[in-house]
């Protein structure tokens, strides 16, 4: 007798727990420390709420879109374009995206996607280190370089302005 192949579990039901949870939680907390501290500091000290609102709002939106994209992938529906996901990450939603990647196990194996994602995280970390500890030297270059960076990213197909 041959055994029949077991059907795959439906997405969202009986999902296995996140692998290496303590390590991943520690990494998540560590990566979020600078943006949370920085945005809270800006809010409390200068009344500037935009960074905190962007971090929270874009993270929630990214989490929801990752969930939607994972479900659509499972049923063969219309997917969320990767450049939309990356745009949300770039606008401050990378913490929600990182959480969604682990919770839904989505976009974790595609190397090209992960390279862009981790570059976005690195840019955010560098800008927060600069803002909080290095006298905003990098931020002084941002206005002059933003246009060429966006143009380069668009021509490479990495970024689309929504």
* Protein structure class: mainly alpha
Strand content: under 5%
Number of helices: 5
Count the domains: 1
Biggest sheet features: none
Q: Kindly state the mean pLDDT as a whole number?
A: 83
Low-confidence sequence ranges: 1-9
Number of strands: 0
Indicate the percent of residues in helices. Answer: over 70%
End-to-end distance? 56 Å
CA radius of gyration: 18 Å
Shape: globular
The topology string of helices and strands comes to: HHHHH
InterPro entries: DUF1294 (IPR010718)
Transmembrane segments: 21-42, 48-66, 115-134
Organism: Pseudomonas syringae
Pfam families: DUF1294
Explain how this protein is built.
This is DUF1294 domain-containing protein. The chain crosses the membrane at residues 21-42, 48-66, 115-134. Keywords: Membrane, Transmembrane, Transmembrane helix. It is globular and about 50 Å long. The protein has one domain (21-155). 72% of the residues lie in helices and 0% in strands. 20% of the residues are buried. With 162 residues, it is mainly α. The chain has helices at 21-46, 50-75, 82-104, 111-133, 137-155.
